[in-house]
């Protein structure tokens, strides 16, 4: 062998020695990234119809669990409309100077606030228990608990006992609100996410409609059963839903967070119909979930309630809390007293209840209307903005109707009822429905249960304040504002509009990993929809936060900000 050949062989050996052979761990990471990227690309290309065909079982299970929300809607309908119901007032109210029975404003506030306080407790417990034990066990315990509490409603001898029942029932109702949204957002792909999370609002609507319908059917009764039967009807739902929850699959996202990968795969198989889509790969989808979970571990501080107020998660928590609060700050509590308001405005007898039934029917139809607008391409942010504009106008018009002279009171009452229906259409096409989708998407998966719980708790805090103010606003023995309350809520609605424009982003069409990166980079809410995100930047394979500054790669499109 010549010296030249020896030199070449030596250099070749040195090059082979310098070649870095990927470790087993690196191979696993690379494989996970490849699978996650493939699953993400497939979800972005998936149409609504393809999503329905692939995830029909996920749709069914999500609808079942969201149905829990109907029970709270039913009770809200009862509480608000019982105040205009003579048998209820005679049992739990006091005799006024005009010879009629009325539940005092302080007790109206107390009953409504009792449920809200119970819900706050339930929401906080849900954030702790659900992340630890899973969605299904917590739901089952709450349903059994509620069946016992309904007996207190049914047998309540006085208004103090009713208040205790409202507080105790509020605990599971708070759990239902949070779980329904998080479960729906985690068991379905991007094309279905907005629709299934919004379905919880539809359940609220049919719960309210059934509630007012039951009261309406009791209108000819004048005995204790006129109000006991509506309370007893609540026993219908928990056993049926409980049977379904026993057989429901657990969220694959929760299972991945608990490092139960094989269980997550089995759960995902139960949620899908893989035979209908040959391109679907369970391993790829699970790796997409794993990728997002690992990414969030790197860019978030932890998974406790305190972590919701740290770093980038503080902004997400603020937005979720604000979106929930906007539902009540835009006149929602005002509308819950519609029957009582109509009666005080001069709509006597069953007419007030007929108006309320029409309003609650609109609540249900409005959800489908919001779905149609989303299917046409309108984003969550635009729907929220346009809706708040419409709500503000409707509320101010109701306020101005209060200026009509007393001799035209009947016509003014009909106009008020009409504007209430217009308000309901605007609300359900936007704020009432879209809020459920937004809070389910804006939260990080790691802190989703706690963030949504905090947001819903903010909703309840605002509701408590509203429930104190609203009875005084409309009660003739208190402030007696009547229609003028519309000016108050119209001004509140305008403030919500300003906040939404500057703070609420557009999450439609984004994977959870992409949303994580957009928030990490502190992208302006007005630029969320026009910013390209690469959740699979090569640097993420070694550090899930990205490059030297720990940030992932984003690039703003050269298009006008939405």
From TrEMBL:
GO (cellular component) term, any one: membrane
Location(s), subcellular: Membrane
Keyword entries, A-Z: Membrane, Transmembrane, Transmembrane helix, Transport
Annotated membrane topology: Multi-pass membrane protein
Domain Major facilitator superfamily (MFS) profile: start-end pairs: 61-508
Molecular function GO terms recorded: carbohydrate:proton symporter activity
TM regions (residue ranges): 138-159, 165-184, 196-215, 235-256, 383-404, 416-439, 451-469, 481-502
SUPFAM superfamilies linked to this entry: MFS general substrate transporter
Catalytic activity: myo-inositol(out) + H(+)(out) = myo-inositol(in) + H(+)(in)
Homology family: Belongs to the major facilitator superfamily. Sugar transporter (TC 2.A.1.1) family.
Protein name per its UniProtKB record: Major facilitator superfamily (MFS) profile domain-containing protein
Species of provenance: Kwoniella europaea PYCC6329
């Amino acid at each position: 062998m010549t010296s030249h050949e020896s030199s070449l062989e030596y250099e070749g050996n040195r090059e082979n020695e310098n070649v870095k052979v990927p470790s087993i761990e690196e191979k696993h990471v690379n494989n996970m990234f490849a699978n996650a990227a493939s699953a993400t690309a497939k979800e972005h290309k998936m149409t609504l119809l393809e999503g329905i065909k692939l995830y029909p079982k996920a749709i069914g299970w999500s609808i079942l669990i969201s149905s829990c929300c109907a029970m709270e809607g039913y009770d809200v309908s009862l509480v608000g409309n019982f105040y205009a119901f003579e048998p209820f007032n005679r049992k739990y109210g006091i005799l006024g100077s005009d010879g009629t029975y009325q539940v005092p404003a302080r007790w109206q506030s107390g009953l409504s606030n009792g449920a809200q306080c119970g819900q706050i407790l339930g929401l906080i417990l849900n954030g702790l228990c659900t992340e630890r034990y899973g969605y299904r066990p917590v739901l089952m315990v709450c349903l059994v608990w509620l069946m016992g509490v309904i007996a207190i409603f049914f047998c309540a001898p006085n208004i103090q006992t009713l208040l205790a029942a409202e507080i105790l029932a509020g605990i599971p109702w708070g759990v239902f609100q949070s779980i329904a949204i998080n479960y729906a957002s985690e068991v379905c792909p991007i094309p279905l996410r907005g629709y299934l999370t919004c379905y919880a609002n539809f359940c609220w609507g049919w719960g309210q409609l059934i509630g007012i319908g039951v009261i309406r059917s009791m209108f000819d009764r004048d005995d204790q059963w006129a109000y006991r039967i509506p309370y007893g009807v609540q026993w219908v739902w928990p056993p049926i839903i409980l049977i379904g929850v026993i057989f429901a699959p657990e969220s694959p996202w929760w299972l991945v967070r608990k490092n139960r990968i094989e269980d997550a795969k089995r759960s995902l198989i139960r949620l899908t119909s893989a035979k209908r889509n040959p391109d679907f790969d369970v391993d790829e989808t699970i790796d997409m979930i794993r990728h997002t979970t690992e990414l969030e571990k790197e860019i978030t501080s932890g998974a406790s309630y305190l972590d919701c107020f740290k770093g980038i998660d503080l902004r997400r928590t603020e937005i979720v809390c604000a979106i929930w609060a906007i539902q009540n700050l835009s006149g929602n509590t005002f509308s819950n007293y519609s029957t009582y308001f109509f009666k005080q405005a001069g709509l006597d007898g069953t007419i007030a209840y007929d108006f309320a039934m029409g309003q609650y029917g609109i609540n249900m139809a409005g959800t489908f209307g919001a779905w149609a607008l989303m299917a046409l391409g309108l984003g969550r942010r635009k729907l929220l903005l346009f809706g708040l504009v419409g709500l503000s106008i409707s509320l101010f018009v109701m306020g101005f109707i209060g200026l009509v002279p007393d001799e035209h009171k009947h016509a003014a009452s009909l106009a008020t009822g009409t504007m209430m229906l217009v308000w309901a259409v605007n609300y359900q096409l936007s704020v009432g429905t879209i809020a459920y989708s937004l809070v389910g998407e804006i939260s990080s998966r790691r802190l989703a249960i706690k963030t949504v719980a905090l947001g819903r708790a903010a909703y309840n805090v605002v509701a408590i304040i509203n429930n104190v103010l609203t009875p005084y606003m409309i009660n003739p023995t208190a402030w007696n504002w009547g229609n003028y309350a519309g000016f108050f809520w119209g001004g509140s609605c305008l403030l919500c509009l300003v906040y939404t424009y500057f703070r609420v982003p557009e999450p439609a069409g984004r994977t959870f990993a992409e949303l994580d990166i957009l928030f990490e980079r502190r992208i302006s809410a007005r630029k969320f929809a026009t910013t390209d995100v690469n959740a699979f930047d090569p640097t993420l394979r070694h550090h899930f936060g990205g490059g030297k500054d720990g940030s992932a790669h984003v690039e703003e499109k050269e298009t006008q900000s939405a």
